Amino acid sequence: MRDQVLDWTSGEPRLVVSRCTRCGAYDYLPREHCAVCSGEDLLAVPADGAGLCVAVTLLHVTAEPGRGPVRLCLVELDEGPVVMGQVHDPHLAPGYRARVEFLPDDRTSAPVPSFTREA
Amino acid sequence: MTAFLTGVGLTAFGRQPGPSSVEWQVAAASMALADAGLDPDDVDGVISGYSTVSPHLMPADVFCERFGIRPAVAFGMSSGGATGLAMLTQAAALVGSRAARHVLVVAGEDRASGQARETSTKVLAQVGHARYEVPLGGTVPAYYALLASRYLWTYGLTPDALAHLPVQMRRHAASRLGAQFQKPITVAEVLDSRPVADPLRLLDCCPVSDGGAAFVISAASTSERSLVVAGTGQAHRHQHLSALEMGASGAALAAQRAVSEAGVMWEDVDVYGIYDSFSVTVALLLEELGLAPAGRAGAYAAAGAFEVDGRYPMNTHGGLLSYGHCGVGGGLAHLCEVAAQLRSERGASQVADCEVGYVHADGGVLSAHVGVVLRRGRR
Predict the structure, then answer these.
(1) In angstroms, rounded to a whole number, what is the distance separating the alpha carbons of residues B366 and B96?
(2) Cα-flanking dihedrals φ and ψ of residue A4, to 5°?
(3) Nearest chain B residue to A70, by CA
(4) Which candidate from B129, B135, B194 shows the least CB-CB separation from A29?
(5) For residues B165 and B331, what is the distance between their CA atoms, to the nearest angstrom?
(6) How many CB atoms lie within 10 A of CB B55?
(7) For residue range B296-317, what is the model confidence (pLDDT) as tens digits?
(8) How far is CA B205 from each of CA B47, B196, B208, B303, B336, rounded to the nearest angstrom?
(9) ipTM confidence
């Protein structure tokens, strides 16, 4: 099981990934076992927060009334796993290096990962 | 183990206010039993797909009571869009283990007129991770749009590459009674349609429909029209988009399990039904299955590969993109169509010399996969 290292979903402004101490596979979403080797010893590692943007979308029709268009992306972190985030840089596109910041969500004001092109 | 697909029933899809979810299931079930030549009291097993409009703890029992049958086995299932074919694998297992002799499988929803579009969107968005994805404000179209963005970038394509797929589905639907949308569309019209989640536009996305689908799996054939369930295969490698391995979603694994159980190769398959919730869905599935080279599914569509007389006749009813999508029943329309092809019932849209069919469904974000190989029956 992954050690408890708090991340943005608990109000800590950082991304945390887990590394399997047996096979070295990285994961972003919490798991009890490594999906590659079934290893139980997963080490929580704060991610550096930068990687390669591999996808972006501007969502025009959102699920919640009152929420304006949302820009989302997938970023392949340098550590390996893919992370979904919002985008606050309209020029971010697949192929650019991206870096995370934690900005209040438009609707809930809770800080969420939001990516911009890396300077 | 041998199981037979002895009957199928598929209603028209579209915006058709009136019937509730269970009433759509009843309509499709009546058609499937009539097709199989069975009476309601021949049914000793029932499996029901979930309805997002009428969620229930025991949907199969709701259906049985409303239909007026008292089977020995009944339960509901949910694997997202893969539910229909997942129910088929369980129905085959029930008859294989002799727990039942005739299993009636039902699905149906008044998804278009029974709930507000915002409600549908919000319910479906729950395939996102509750803690790590949903708070970002995404929806199912957004998740598939991210896959489409990644796909186009990876292969250096522009959105018109994907637009050929909905155009082909619409061309099929034009000659299929019951399809929700039948007016032919062009690549330009797809590219000019309203943006939903870039790069996906309205015509890249399946509609929301009212309708139902049902089928019967039996231990023995009941008519000349009975088909053999030659092989089934599943794969479940992730649920959320953040955990998806591109190119190894499980689609190929499920298909490989199904075709190897059936003892066939792709060259033996004459007709296909491939899940097409979005243009990019069917592109990614076709390419992972190895039916089109990476990045070329749209080009294959443009060249006619998925036409009735093409190399891979596919979704000849119009697919989710044009026949429509009423939830679990939407994925079953592919099964009903492939069955109709194998039974040579499709008239002007009939694929020649149809012996073996392959149907593939995925649920979530390419998350749950089920492949099924059907073969024309031998008495």
Answers:
(1) 29
(2) -80, 100
(3) B137
(4) B129
(5) 17
(6) 11
(7) 999 999 999 999 999 999 999 9
(8) 28, 8, 9, 22, 21
(9) 0.96
